[in-house]
Design a protein that fits this description.
7-stranded mixed β-sheet; alpha/beta
């Protein structure tokens, strides 16, 4: 996909702030520190469009990025970071679930999982929710450059077994591994929408 423009549009802290046009949306979901911002920046060939942070749990809003004036990337708050209050974690979960449940513009959910680790309980719960509610989604195993070829194959196999009802792709924001495949998935989701 040729990126002609990519711009941050807004952060939404509640439903009233959601973008209100009818372009399709690609939502990025995952645990805090799984590499959502890095993956978005890598896909768009931009260094600092989506802000990366060394502090997990930094993204506390739904962030909209308009791509090629045609569709949105939507970065949802990360989940599962222990050092924030329970109330704040609950708010994030409520905000994300409300968005995922109600959003008609949602063309694809991309659930990110760190390939170096087994899916967590929260990863499994989110995946089960996406499948149960029949949301179009894929799982992307990030940080593929951090493992040897053998380790990567072993981990991907384990993730595919854990998340048997979902397609799993691998990705590296560092090397671009999996980038073409992921763009192909995104483009086909956009072409099928609505």
């Amino acid at each position: 996909m040729k990126i002609t423009s990519a711009e941050f549009v807004k952060s939404a802290f509640n439903r009233e702030h959601w973008v209100d046009d009818l372009r399709p949306e690609i939502a990025f979901l995952g645990r805090s520190n799984v590499g959502k911002s890095s993956l978005i920046n890598s896909l768009l060939n931009r260094k600092g469009l989506a802000r990366t942070s060394n502090t997990p749990g930094r993204t506390q809003s739904i962030n909209y990025f308009l791509i090629n004036d045609e569709f949105y990337f939507v970065d949802l708050p990360g989940y599962g970071y222990a050092k924030v209050s329970k109330a704040m974690r609950s708010d994030w979960g409520t905000m994300a679930e409300e968005y995922l449940s109600a959003r008609e513009q949602l063309a694809l959910c991309i659930q990110l999982i760190d390939v170096r680790h087994e899916p967590t309980r929260l990863d499994l719960q989110l995946n089960e929710w996406l499948n149960f509610h029949q949301k179009p989604h894929i799982v992307v195993a990030t940080k593929a450059d951090k493992l040897s070829k053998n380790q990567l194959a072993k981990q991907v196999k384990a993730i595919r077994l854990s998340l048997a009802d979902s397609t799993v792709e691998i990705y590296s924001s560092e090397t671009g591994k999996g980038k073409e495949e992921l763009w192909s998935t995104i483009q086909s989701a956009i072409s099928r929408w609505p």
